[in-house]
Amino acid sequence: MADPGTAGTGEPVLRLTGLNKSFGPVHVLHDVDLTLRLGEVTALVGDNGAGKSTLIKCIAGIHPIDSGTIEFDGRQVQIGSPRDAAALGIEVVYQDLALADNLDIVQNMFLGRERRRGLVLDEDSMEEAARETLARLSVRTVKSVRQQVASLSGGQRQTVAIAKAALWESKVVILDEPTAALGVAQTRQVLDLVRRLADTGHAVVLISHNMNDVFEVADEITALYLGRVAAQVRRTDVTHGQVVELITAGRSGDLGLAPATAAENI
């Protein structure tokens, strides 16, 4: 497994420049710059209200941006809807996972995008694709792709949701707090899967409040402070303490927002 945090060699796949978003008089995102690279995990960290969810929803096409540019694979794009994002190869796994308990793993992975053979569902093709995706990600915690989701543990559900995102020839996979409410063993399984997702060529965004998780799997860390990017740095170039200071004050020593800018946001 590649060591996270080493010098960035992945090709940039998604680049945000000067992104702004307001809701009425409330300016939520201020000139946000962000670069995501294939084969890397970028941890997106910040306190509650820092703008993480709004930023992700802008990338996912849920919220239109007010200004700024979005480049995907080197060309400028407009993302006006979740369908646009999916067509580019951007998938989001939200905390609620959006899985249907009464359906099995295959049915969940293809929910809303079922393959058909004439008038009937192509069950064999979908089952084979589900198996191949789980195998590619080295998932061994699921006994059968025909298990009902209702019978799965929290960690297994998260695994299915991540595999579903990887199924659709996605290039960018955004994971919203994937280890929240999981036990130690299940957290270990999910973090291993996050790393494998990057190692198979995806650009992964990991939103997390857990600094141990961040420092274990991230290559880069982007810290948001009240709607501004305080820093986007290699994981190996910062300490836990510095990241916490970036999250809570927007600045750590010489790193982060200019003192005047950080003070404006307090």
Automatic annotation (TrEMBL):
Pfam name, any one: ABC_tran
Listed SMART domains: AAA
Nucleus recorded as keyword: no
InterPro entries documented for this protein: AAA+_ATPase, ABC_carbohydrate_import_ATPase, ABC_transporter-like_ATP-bd, P-loop_NTPase
Entry superkingdom: Bacteria
CDD domains cross-referenced by the UniProt entry: ABC_Carb_Monos_I (cd03216)
Annotated transmembrane regions: none
Keyword Nucleotide-binding: yes
Domain ABC transporter: start-end pairs: 14-251
UniProtKB keywords: ATP-binding, Nucleotide-binding
Any one GO molecular-function label of the UniProt entry: ATP binding
Name used for this protein in its record: Fructose import ATP-binding protein FrcA
Species in which this protein is naturally found: Actinomadura macrotermitis
Higher taxonomy: Bacteria, Bacillati, Actinomycetota, Actinomycetes, Streptosporangiales
